[in-house]
From TrEMBL:
Region (Disordered): 1-58
GO molecular function: RNA binding
Domain S1 motif per the UniProt entry, residue ranges: 82-170, 281-349, 370-440, 457-525, 545-614, 730-801, 850-912
Localization per Swiss-Prot or TrEMBL: Nucleus
Database matches in SMART domains: S1
GO CC, alphabetical: small-subunit processome
A GO biological-process term: rRNA processing
Entries under CDD domains matching the protein: S1_Rrp5_repeat_hs1_sc1
Amino acid composition bias (Basic and acidic residues), ranges on this chain: 48-58
Name of this protein: S1 motif domain-containing protein
């Protein structure tokens, strides 16, 4: 018998002698009354029957008492300790969960209130008994936003001042004072994972002497859908469905083990029948049941579940409450329980009734935070606020405080039903299924809702929250702002609390934005807030002679450091502090002082800014200014002109415009749209060469010209916006990358207009700043779409997303390939007219790609075979293109032309005799005409370029060759690994450009969605994690090997192939397509844009047996690790440590063999393995390695490696690059012809200047050779 619920007949005399019972009835009754309402009756009707014990017929609670008054929803007055609530996870932080509750209330669950198992794990981690890798998972790993949780109001930390509650989801707290008797079959309860056993998981449900057991088969569906095949995590709290057996006797106090299931399908169907005996003790938040309507009114519904009377608030009822009839059966779920009055509140909302234990489907993703709705229709208005109809059949709620900036007297009159209003989304209530909106004009007009929308230099009104001597904390919309002591006023304040008080409204300007800590740093200096000068927040906005207002952040005896917005700083030397000489700046200036300065000099490469406090430039500076800014009268952005090369310097050319005689600058990156072709032109152009088609790109204080075909084509279409007013939203334009910063990419249009691409729209798959810089560089050609214009600030924002820039995306890859061929044709035409390579190119033009030529072998080395041709040209045959032919010096070979290498001035050949024979016996033009567009044709990869594959078509197209693009668009920055040479693929012919076939792989073709097949879905099998399978090699890429595992896709990373590696060996070199390999499943990943999952595998012998080990996260100095080559750039080599982690090696630490360093790409190939030694860490995640056993450094008296970056033949000086970005210049006394650009040398450091990164060196013949002075 339950103590709190007396059974049977009630003795009225005894009832009068017991003081607690009348009090209890009164409290239960008053819960649903207003404060002023009076109790109407003190008696409770009880079924009278002398022969009945009352256990089945006695109803807990009074129908009349509940239905007579308005039902109150959860609020801070009704909350009490021990209250059980159904909540939804709305935010996950490092150490707590933010929970959304009914009636827009919120709660917080601390990391120590999750479960006993998880708290124990945290304690062991704090005491260093275990490491993080041994199973302590983060809250982000265990939970997802949108999950429902059952939680309890903490009895010791109740906070309701701001409608924020301290909660616990620990099953031990939630099920406190419960016994095994309260468990019912098909009942939903919460529990935490204690441990994983051979056949399943032990579950803690928080009930004494009772534990749960979850069989592996009952967890399989949840694991596959929610955790991608990974095991459940210890300490994780989940929903379970109770499965009691017929012989389970829970009435005794002995130990019990009950069976549970976590299957989403079964949990969503969990339901307690109306006839099943239920009491107050059996009801828990989240439990679904059938209820019988006892009374319906405008105030809500009074229903019965078992023998318990419950209520439903109108906001949690489907439709109008008065439409429901007495004794009607309805489906409900428990929303929350009030323990003091033993009142149970229910919900009928579908997303809560049909919850399956995973993430709620409330369709709020159709509206984003900050979205503005112009015509929201009022559907209800009451004293709490206004309900409106929103797009996508959603309902919005504007609470009373969000209706207007002024006080609203009569809500119903000012917001009549059917009226339309403008509102803005400010949040979401996941429990009540409302979109929280605001109709305040101040909220609608604010230019931001999220912190990433705030631009440094912007002005906002803020509200003071509290004041300290060191900082003022302010409220900026819904964000936190800080005003440092240095920026409270124009002059330092000793007692800021006397000037500022809580609630003050200030107008401040944003200094910087701290995305990590979600804070905004502001200034209240009126001289900065009211300035009329430009506010710069990016180095790309800096230009010579620009006047700015800044503030002093450092003073020393050499000058003053001035800061601007977004932490941009400039240096004012002593000579520029004043017209008069100032010997002691600290006596004249003070920290925080606002100063007006002028940009005297700006170095775009180093971003160093030199400033001046002088009112105007010195006389000699003024002459220089007039000279620099002299622009020809006929300068026109986008005009195509002829130029002549005057000189070549590092990364730029000085050219002369033929029509005007004025000098202009042509950067190396502006020679073409693709980097490899820029290199070709840079090497081939010489002084005196004529450039017939050059476009005026921009002109500030100097003329910048470009040869990029994408910009030349734009000029032909006459789309050159030279002023901000000529721009319009959704314009798609070619552009050039100007600068890359942490929050975005600055770009320049033809004409000089500059815009910003926020990092979130810089790539289709979001990449952070550290990774995006590996793919994007200054000077790169891109396509942008204008997405936002700010007429007041005359700024604009663009996007690089494929769906924005290439809306007609079916031909985007073919367009990119055509652009590359246009660039290549332009390069060939320019060099053909030049002095250095003109004759050579004329010969090469006579030998088109795909033609058959004869060559004589003259040299054989490790990379391939060198040949001479009859016309004097050189040819080269890579080892992969020999096809089992073993020529010797002097042999004649017959090969087909693959490509023309203009830098090395040679022709690349293939000796595949099948292709040679087909080429000789067929006419290319006829062959092209016979091929059908979009026809699927087998092909073999012959040559791999960063931008395209050269493939040989097979089948009926044998004898034809085609170009296949490696990327989708010119903006793509994170494409798949390239196919290796000799890879068999299928392509579709797309088009013909200048007799060159363009073909596409399936990766470039849009596939129509396939209809869902319920039978296939039902019979779908999954590869179990930890299982060992025999697989077949399907495709081999340099980093990834794709597998077929019993008809399912799988893949293995090169780092997961071997336990030990021999330097230079590729782990995939021992495998061919079709070969079998034993692998073990380590996890599952979802293939992008596909429904199926791919199995992640390991082939390491040590991992095929025993327990799967996670990759080590510890990298002690001087420890050895296996690394695999990923990417080689100018200064470093990126390596793979694992499939998830990368490392970096300086090119100086790759080898002590100078010949190897001169030919890096031929010795270090993608996917090759090496044994590296850990020597440091760069940033937070990149581990630094060396292959030489040490880290090369620049120290006085030490010998080190260097390489030649530039040679001046007139002065006989060579410029050297040394480790740690140091440079040196050496004047030669010997013949300078012995040296060439890119040559590696040994040198001895004689002196080092670390401030300028310069040093003095003397050259040596070897590392041990004495210096030849």
């Amino acid at each position: 018998m339950e103590v709190d619920f007396p059974r049977g007949k009630v003795d009225k005399k005894k009832q009068q002698n017991v003081p607690r019972k009348p009090v209890r009835r009164k409290r239960e009754k008053n819960l649903f009354m207003t404060e002023r309402s009076k109790p109407k009756a003190k008696k409770r009707k009880v079924a009278k029957s002398g022969d009945d014990d009352g256990k089945k017929r006695k109803i807990e609670g009074s129908v009349d008492a509940h239905g007579a008054v308005k039902i109150e929803l959860l609020n801070k007055k009704t909350v009490c300790p021990g209250m059980l609530l159904l909540g939804c996870i709305s935010e996950i932080r490092d150490y707590k969960l933010i929970i959304s509750l009914a009636n827009n209330m919120k709660g917080v669950i601390s990391i120590t209130d999750v479960s006993d198992t998880y708290t124990s794990k945290l304690q062991q981690l704090a005491e260093e008994e275990i490491t993080e890798e041994e199973g302590v998972h983060s809250l982000n790993e265990m939970f997802k936003v949108g999950m429902l949780v059952c939680c309890k109001v903490s009895e010791t930390r109740l906070k309701v001042t701001k409608q924020i509650l301290d909660l616990s989801m620990n099953p031990k707290h939630v099920h406190e004072n419960k016994t095994a008797k309260f468990l019912k079959n098909n009942m939903i309860i919460c529990g935490s994972v204690v441990s994983q056993e051979d056949h399943g998981y032990i579950i803690d449900i928080g009930v004494p002497n009772t534990k749960g057991f979850l069989l592996n088969k009952n967890a399989e569906e949840y694991i596959q859908n929610m955790v991608d095949g990974e095991s459940l995590m210890e300490g994780q709290v989940l929903w379970f469905c109770v499965k009691l057996k017929a012989d389970d006797d829970l009435s005794t106090d002995s130990l019990h083990t009950i069976h549970l299931t976590i299957s989403p399908t079964k949990i969503s169907k969990t339901h307690i029948n109306v006839d099943q005996p239920m009491t107050f003790n059996n009801l828990m938040p989240g439990v679904c049941a059938t209820a019988i309507v006892k009374k319906a009114s405008e105030y809500g519904l009074v229903v019965r579940i078992g023998n318990k009377i419950c209520v439903i608030h109108p906001t949690h009822i489907n439709g109008n409450p008065t439409d429901y009839k007495e004794d009607q059966e309805i489906s409900v779920s428990v929303l929350y329980i009030q323990p003091e009055t033993k009142s149970v509140y229910l919900t009928m909302l579908p997303h809560l009734l049909n919850y399956n234990g995973m993430v709620t489907d409330i369709m709020l993703d159709k509206l984003g935070l900050g979205d503005i709705i112009d015509n929201a229709v009022v559907c209800e208005a009451n004293k709490k606020g206004v309900y409106v109809k929103l797009p996508h059949a959603l309902t919005g709620l504007a609470q009373k405080g969000n209706l207007s900036d002024s006080k609203v007297q009569k809500i119903e009159e000012e917001f009549p039903i059917g009226s339309k209003h403008r509102c803005r989304v400010v949040g979401f209530n996941s429990i009540d299924n409302f979109v929280m909106v605001s109709m305040k004009k101040s909220i609608i007009d604010v230019p931001f809702i999220k912190i990433r929308d705030i631009v440094p230099g912007s002005i906002y009104k803020v509200e003071v929250k509290f004041v300290k001597d060191t900082v003022i904390v302010v409220k900026l919309g819904n964000l936190k702002g800080l005003i440092p002591a240095l920026h409270m006023a124009d002059i330092p304040l000793k007692n800021p609390s006397k000037k500022f008080t809580e609630g003050d409204e200030l107008e401040c300007r944003v200094l910087s934005v701290d995305m990590k800590d979600n804070k905004v740093i502001l200034t209240n200096k009126k001289s900065l807030v009211d300035t009329k000068l430009p506010t710069v927040h990016d180095n790309s906005q800096i230009r010579k002679h620009l006047e700015l207002d800044g503030f002093i952040v450092m003073i020393n005896n050499r000058g003053v450091l001035v800061a601007f917005y977004n932490n941009i700083k400039g240096w004012v030397p002593l000579s520029e502090l004043s017209e008069e000489k100032i010997e002691h700046p600290e006596k004249v200036f003070y920290l925080g002082q606002v100063v007006r300065c002028r940009v005297k000099n700006y170095d775009e490469e180093t971003n160093k800014i030199v400033l001046s406090f002088r009112k105007g430039p010195r006389p000699k500076d003024r002459k220089l200014k007039e000279k620099d800014t002299s622009v020809p009268d006929d300068f026109e952005a986008g005009k195509i002109v002829e130029c002549k090369v005057k000189s070549k310097k590092q990364e730029l050319m000085i050219v002369s415009v033929t029509s005007t005689g004025k000098d202009a600058i042509l950067y190396k990156a502006h020679l073409a749209d693709f980097d490899d072709l820029c290199d070709v032109l840079w090497e081939g152009l010489q002084e005196g060469d004529i450039l017939e088609r050059v476009v005026h790109f921009k002109c500030t204080n100097k003329i910048i010209v470009s040869m990029k075909p994408s910009l030349l084509k734009q000029t032909e279409n006459d789309i050159i916006p030279t002023d901000f007013t000529e721009l319009s939203k959704d314009m798609i334009l070619p552009a050039v990358v100007k600068n890359i910063v942490e929050y975005g990419i600055f770009f320049t249009l033809t004409g000089g207009l500059r815009g910003l691409i926020p990092m979130k729209v810089a790539s289709d798959n979001y990449l952070p700043y550290e990774e995006i810089t590996n793919y994007i560089h200054v000077g790169q050609s891109i396509v942008v779409r204008i997405t936002h214009l700010d007429p007041d600030k005359r700024t604009f924002v663009g996007s690089m997303l494929t769906r924005h820039c290439f809306p007609r995306s079916s031909d985007k890859a073919a367009i990119l390939m055509k652009l590359y061929l246009e660039n290549k044709e332009m390069v060939t035409n320019v060099l053909s007219a030049g002095q250095s390579m003109g004759g050579l190119l004329l010969k090469m033009k006579e030998i088109p790609v795909g033609s058959v030529v004869t060559a004589i072998v003259n040299d054989i080395n490790t990379d391939g075979v060198s040949c001479n041709m009859s016309n004097g040209l050189s040819a080269f045959i890579n080892n992969d293109m020999l096809y089992d032919i073993k020529p010797v010096i002097g042999d004649k070979v017959l090969g087909v032309v693959l490509s023309i290498d203009l830098i090395k001035q040679r022709i690349d050949l293939s000796l595949d005799q099948t292709i040679v024979a087909a080429m000789k016996n067929s006419e290319t033009e006829d062959q092209i005409q016979q091929l059908n567009v979009d026809e699927n044709i087998p092909a073999e990869v012959l040559q791999v370029n960063f931008n395209y594959y050269m493939v040989s078509l097979r089948g009926k197209a044998l004898g034809s060759m085609a170009y296949v693009p490696t990327k989708h668009t010119i903006n793509c920055i994170n494409e798949l690994d390239l196919y290796p040479v000799k890879q068999n693929i299928h392509v579709k012919i797309h088009s013909v450009y200048n007799e060159n076939l363009i073909a596409l792989t399936p990766l470039h073709q849009i596939k129509s969605p396939t209809p869902n097949n319920s039978k296939n879905k039902k019979n779908k099998l999954y590869l179990s994690i930890g299982g060992v399978y025999k697989a077949k090699v399907k495709e081999i890429h340099p980093i990834i090997m794709n597998l077929d595992i019993e008809g399912k896709p799988g893949r293995v990373h090169c780092t997961d192939m071997v336990d030990t590696i021999q330097d230079g060996h590729h782990p995939f070199s021992d495998y061919q397509v079709g070969k079998e390999i034993m692998v073990r499943i380590t996890g599952h990943s979802k293939i992008k844009k596909k429904e199926e999952k791919v199995a992640e595998c390991t082939a390491k012998p040590s991992q095929l047996k025993g327990r799967l080990e996670k990759s080590s996260r510890s990298f002690p100095l001087k420890s050895s690790r296996r690394v695999f080559i990923d990417k080689i750039d100018k200064d470093n080599v990126m390596v793979n440590i694992s499939s998830q982690r990368k490392g970096i090696i300086s090119i100086f630490d790759l080898s002590d063999d100078l010949m190897i360093l001169e030919n890096l790409k031929s010795h270090f190939k993608k996917g090759q393995g090496y044994n590296g030694e850990v020597v440091g860490c760069r940033g937070r995640s990149k581990i630094v390695f060396t292959f030489t056993g040490r880290r090369e450094k620049v120290s006085e008296g030490e010998t080190t490696k260097c390489y030649i970056t530039d040679i001046d033949t007139e002065s006989k000086e060579i410029k050297l690059s040394l480790p740690a970005r140091h440079t040196a210049v050496v004047k030669l006394s010997t013949d300078i012809k012995k040296y060439h650009k890119g040559q590696w040398l040994w040198c001895q450091v004689t002196s080092v200047d670390d401030t300028e990164n310069k040093c003095s060196v003397t050259l040596k013949k070897s590392r041990g050779w004495k210096t030849d002075k």
